Amino acid sequence: MKIERIELFHVAMPLIYPWRTAYGEDAAIHSVLCRMISGSVEGWGESTPLAAPCYSPEWAGGVFQTVSEWLAPALLGQDIESGDALQERLSVYKGNPFAKAALDNAWWSLHSRITNVPLHIALGATRSEVPVGADFGVMDQVDDLIEAVGAAIAENFPRIKLKFRPGWDIPMLQAIRASFPNETFHIDCNSGYRLKDVPLFQAIDEFELAMIEQPLQHDDLTDHAKLQELIQTPVCLDESITHPYRVQQALELKSARYMNVKPGRVGGLTNAVKIHDLCQQAGTPCWVGGMLESATGASHCTALAMLDNFTYPADIFPSEKYYHEDLAEVPLALFDIGGGIPGVKAFQELPNPDMNRLESLTIQKKIIRL
């Protein structure tokens, strides 16, 4: 598969309402889309590190420059026959998983189209649909959150994720548990705490949560292992997991009992599958997370979620939840996958961006060609 042309688009996709977390607030989602062409076939990848380096050290403007100046030229004109070959070609460049993911995901899309094999099958999936959960950021009032959670429970979402940060913490959980004593909840701290906060997390044990997602520093493994020994609630790693090697270390240290896998954060689908396999071998369950991608990128998360060891309901959202109009030609929708449970089905044909909408939202663009 000779890579003949790569086009990059840094876009800002306005949200219906701001997304608030422990690290800040986003009114628009900044993403980098990659169009990779071989012969007459094109594939699209999307990587969504957000506008500022707050979720991770990477940010969309930096990812755009890294891919355009270094990573894309390293692939141009090369015959890339596998995701492993692509990762090897890029391995001289240290870190930068979101930047590498834009190219890796585009390669898998291109591979799927050239071979005429649906992406989830190409990745090794045995399913074609999976359940998803409902997520809620920090809101103005706890009563607003209770109302929103009640609506999600009425819609049969199998689990609820709550953003958790100082000032939106134990009292919020108390109110939620008082209103919904039997539902499955977990909290996402987005690395907003430190090991000195152990008493807080020990107090959280009484709420019987499914897990605590990334409570400590964004690049930590050892303190998470110490925390896991001191609390009953399972710890889940998110930001700390940026490469399969980091997963090997986390498993050896017993840093967590769950792993969240986001294709962008780990360098693309190639590494995401490897992480899935490592965790499956270790008996550690996984689940697929999202970065509020357009349906172009979310279709890749959906394909990944079909693998067997992704057993906890995924963070994959319908386009209408966050966007007035999705960037992609075909928006992502939820389906009743049985028993009234909301879920996603694998795309048989991956959705391209709508070119008119793409151009209207593009901040900067670059074409790398032979």
Profile the largest sheet.
7 strands, parallel
Distance between the termini: 15 Å
Number of alpha- plus pi-helical segments: 13
Which whole number gives the mean pLDDT?
Answer: 96
- Portion in helices: 25-40%
Strand content: 15-25%
* Rg, Cα atoms, Å: 20 Å
Query: What is the string of SSEs from the N terminus onward?
Result: EEEHHHHEEHEHEHEHEHEHEHHEEHE
Strand order of the largest sheet: 5-6-7-8-9-10-11
Question: Layout of helices and strands, plus pairs?
Answer:
Blueprint: E1 5-21, E2 24-38, E3 41-47, H1 60-75, H2 83-90, H3 97-115, H4 119-122, E4 129-131, E5 134-136, H5 142-154, E6 160-163, H6 170-179, E7 185-188, H7 198-204, E8 212-213, H8 222-230, E9 235-237, H9 244-253, E10 258-261, H10 269-282, E11 286-288, H11 295-305, H12 319-322, E12 335-336, E13 342-345, H13 355-361, E14 362-369
Parallel strand pairs: 5-6, 6-7, 7-8, 8-9, 9-10, 10-11
Antiparallel strand pairs: 1-2, 1-14, 2-3, 4-13, 12-13
Helix pairs in contact: 1-3, 2-3, 5-6, 9-10
